[in-house]
Amino acid sequence: MPEISNRGKQMPESPIRKLAPFAEMAKKKGHKVYHLNIGQPDIKSPEAAIKAIKNIDLTIIEYGPSAGYESYRKKLAQFYTNQDVKVSFEDIMITTGGSEALLFALGSIMDQGDEIIIPEPFYANYSAFSAESGATVVPVNSVFESGFTLPPIEEFEKLITPKTKAILICNPSNPTGYLYSESEILQLGRLAKQYDLFLIADEVYREFIYDEDIHYSVMNLEGLEQNVIMIDSVSKRYSMCGARIGCMVTKNKEVISAAMKFAQARLCPPTIEQIACEAAIDTPQSYFDEVITEYKERRDTLISELNKIEGVIVTKPKAAFYCIAQLPVDNTDDFAQWLLESYDLNGETVMVAPAAGFYSTPGMGLNQVRIAYVLKKEDLISAVRILKEAIPVYNSTRLKKLIEVE
Amino acid sequence: MPEISNRGKQMPESPIRKLAPFAEMAKKKGHKVYHLNIGQPDIKSPEAAIKAIKNIDLTIIEYGPSAGYESYRKKLAQFYTNQDVKVSFEDIMITTGGSEALLFALGSIMDQGDEIIIPEPFYANYSAFSAESGATVVPVNSVFESGFTLPPIEEFEKLITPKTKAILICNPSNPTGYLYSESEILQLGRLAKQYDLFLIADEVYREFIYDEDIHYSVMNLEGLEQNVIMIDSVSKRYSMCGARIGCMVTKNKEVISAAMKFAQARLCPPTIEQIACEAAIDTPQSYFDEVITEYKERRDTLISELNKIEGVIVTKPKAAFYCIAQLPVDNTDDFAQWLLESYDLNGETVMVAPAAGFYSTPGMGLNQVRIAYVLKKEDLISAVRILKEAIPVYNSTRLKKLIEVE
C-alpha cells in the first residue's frame, strides 16, 4: 500500500471539528447541545442576497473570471472606499472564502521553511494553511491577563530571522475578540517596514465592533502599500459562511500576479454565490445596525453570566463574536469531551472549543475555552447555566478518578 | 519591498488565459471571436439544478460539512454504483471543483520534490497543482501520430525513481480526446501495484464518449483499491463549470483522512451549488442522450471541416470535447496571437489554444493546437473556414518578415 505524504500526516486536525463525533453521540442520546464552539451565526443572510439567488437568470452556470466578476470587484472597491479603505478593483481578487485568500497569499510569499510570526492564540486553521504552504509558524504570546493586547513589539523583533517573511494578525481577533488599536497597528507597520516583511491582516470581522472603538485597517498604513495584504470574506459580514466567497486585497502588484496564477489554476470562485454577494453589497446600514445591537447584547449577556461562575475569568471582548474564558478546570480538552460524552442538565449540554487548539506553543491555554456568542440571549443564558452546574461535577468526578487511580 | 516566493515566481501561467487580453482587444476592435480555445460548453445546465437554486429554502447560507453534505455524497455513491463503479459515500469527499480534489489528492500523497508521472500532452493546470504541492512533473510522451494512445508501459517504468509517488492520467483526456482502453488501464494498474504507486485518474469527462467505446474507471481495478484515486466534477457532466463542485473518490482511508484535514481547514464547499448538484443527480438520461448526440455531431463536423484544410492533420477523438490538430505553421503560440491581433475574415476571427502549453517537455507541440468543440455546428464551420483562410496569409506574412530581417 503506497504511503501518504508527510505533509498529509503533519497537517493539524481541526481542534474543534475533532469533537464533532462526541456532539453527534450526545444528540443521538436525545440531548440538546448548545453550540458555543462554532462561528456559524444564527443571523439571517441579507434579503438581497437570497433574492438574487432565487431570481437567478442563468441557463448555464458558467465559469467566471479567475479574479472574480469585475462588476463585483468594482462594487467591493467602492464598499471599502466608503469605509475609508481606498482601493481599486485591481487591488482585489475574489477567492473561494477567506480561506483561499490566505492560501493564495501564503503561496505567493512563502517558500518551504519560511517563517511567519503570529500572535497566539490564533485561528487554528492558520496552522493548517501554513502547513499546506510549507511555512513554519512562529508564535508570539499575547497574554490572557492583559486581555490579549498586542505583545510588546520587541517580542516580535526577537523572533525575526533571515527566514521570516511575514507577520499575520487577525483583527478583530478570532478567538480572543480583541481589536487592535491604531497605535498597535502602526507599531506592526513600522516593524514590517524596518525588516521588509509582509504584514497580513485577516479582517473578516471588521464590521463587528461593539463600543466606541474604531477599526484601523492595515490597508491604511502609509508607506506600507507594498507590504500589506488584507484578507476578507462575506461569511460573517452577511452571515453567508456557506457562500465561500472572500477576497485578497493588496496594492502589491507582484503579489497580485503571483496569486493570479494560483487563481487561474483553480479556474474561478463559485458563480451563483458571487452573484448573491454582489447583490448583498446593497444591504442597508439598518441590517448591520440590528446585527451589531444583537451581538452587543449577546456579548454583554454572555460576559455577565460567565462572571457569575466562581473561578471563571473572562475579559469583555471588544469585537468579533468570541471570547476566551479561563475555567476552573485542569484540562479543557478533557472537559469539553466530558460535557458531550458524560454530562447533561435536564437533557441539555454544551459544546465549547478548548483553547489549546488556538495556541501553537504546547501546554498553553489548557484551562481556557473559546466561546462564540452566536446564539440567542436566552440560549446563552441556558448554556452558561449548564457550564456553571457542570464544572463542580466534572471536578469531583476527576478527583474521584484520581483517588481511584492512586 | 518584500520579495514574493519562488513558488509564486515559478507557478506556471495558464497558457490559454494569457491569450485572453488579445481576445479582449480583438473584441474591442469590433471583431467577433469564435472561442475554440475553451472548455466552457454552451449546453444548458439541467433544469433540475437551476430549479433547485431558484427554489432555495434557506434564510441563512450556512457552513456545510467539510466533506460535503452526506445526502449528496450518498446520492453520488448511488450514481457511481449505477455506472458500475461501486463506492460508498464514505469513499467520496465533495470538493470545490475537480481542481480542489486534485490539490487535496496531491497534498495528501506528495511531498516537496516527489515525482508524478503524467502522459503529455496533459491538462495544463496539472503543472500548476504540482507546483503548488511542491511535486515534480515527469512527463512521458504520448505520440500525436498514434492518436495519443497510452505510451508503452516500459516508457513509464524507465521513469520510475525512488521519488516517484504517483501516475496521473486524464481519462477521457483533455486535451487529446483520447479514451484509454481497459487493457491500457490494466497495464497502468499492474505497474502501480508493482512499484507501490498511487494511480490518479481525472475522469471528469467520463460521460462524453461518442462511439462504441466503453469507459473503464480506475476504481474498477481489482486489488488496486489502496492505490487508486478518482477525480471527478460536475463542471462538464451538467455544464455547470461555475458551480465549482467536484469530488475525490478513493477507498484508501489514509488518503481520505489526510484529505479531510485539508478539507476542514477550508471549512466546506459552496452550499447553494451543492444543493443544485444534489438536485442535478436526478437529471434524466434523455438529457445526456441529447448532449452526447449534439457533441458527436459537432465532433464529426469539426473533424471533417479540419480535414478539408491542406496540411492539417487530426485524429478523430473518441471522447471528451477536444482534439489536438497539427497545423501547417511553425509556431502556434505566435499564430494564435496573430489570429487575434492582426487577422480577421469579414470582421471575424478565431481563438485557439496553442498545444505547447499542454506539454511539459520544451519544444513539443509547437505546430499543434487544441480545439474544443463546444460551439454549435454552424459556428464550428465558420471558425474552421477562418482558420483555413488565415493559415496561408499568416505563413506569407511570416515569410515576408523573415525576408525583411535577412
UniProtKB/TrEMBL annotation, chains A, B:
Write the protein's name.
Answer: Aminotransferase
Q: Which organism is it from?
A: Flavobacterium gawalongense
Question: Would the keyword ATP-binding turn up in this protein's UniProt record?
Answer: no
Source organism lineage? Answer: Bacteria, Pseudomonadati, Bacteroidota, Flavobacteriia, Flavobacteriales
Where would one find the signal peptide in this protein? none
- The lineage's top-level taxon is Bacteria
Which keywords label this protein? Aminotransferase, Pyridoxal phosphate, Transferase
Keyword DNA-binding appears in the UniProt entry: no
Cofactors needed by this protein, per the record, are: pyridoxal 5'-phosphate
